[in-house]
């Protein structure tokens, strides 16, 4: 047995993940590719996670006007990046869910911000903040989720 084969056999027997990975067939040439590692999409994910952390830190209460105005500018910039991501995927000819979801998030973000800004009671603010946090979480999750084949 050659040294290479002996080493490969030893590694396969010592780490079950190696053997499991060997059983996974290679992706088809037309398999969907994740965009999560691309700079634009990685930026969207990072911003979404950071903004969600801020919303979670509010404890369901909208922050003071100046802090909320600064947050709103960042969230609107994120919505613009989501639309840019949609347009990039559209230009590539991608006909998948991510393209549509990014556009929907870009359109929904200002509405969620308006709802939080208009909320007067603590209960209304808590609901609006929760919906905004969910949207921000979804924004990151749809990009980082493993790509699915088109149907």
Question: What would you say this structure looks like, in words?
Answer:
This protein is mainly α and 151 residues long. The chain is 74% helix and 0% strand. Helix 5 runs antiparallel to helix 6 (122-144).
Distance between the termini: 47 Å
Query: What does the radius of gyration come to?
Result: 21 Å
What spatial form do the alpha-carbon principal axes imply? elongated
Order of helices and strands: HHHHHH
Query: Structural class of the secondary elements?
Result: mainly alpha
Q: Helical residue percent?
A: over 70%
Which regions have little confidence, pLDDT < 50, spanning 5+ residues? none
Number of helices: 6
Strand content: under 5%
Q: In this structure, how is the largest beta sheet organized?
A: none
Topology, number of strands: 0
What value does the average pLDDT take? 85
Question: Which key terms come to mind for this protein?
Answer:
0% strand, 151 residues, elongated, 6 helices, mainly alpha
Helix-strand layout with pairing:
Layout: H1 3-14, H2 16-23, H3 39-57, H4 65-92, H5 97-118, H6 122-144
Task: Write a compact overview of the structure shown.
The chain has 151 residues and is mostly helical. 74% of the residues lie in helices and 0% in strands. It is elongated, with a radius of gyration of 21 Å.
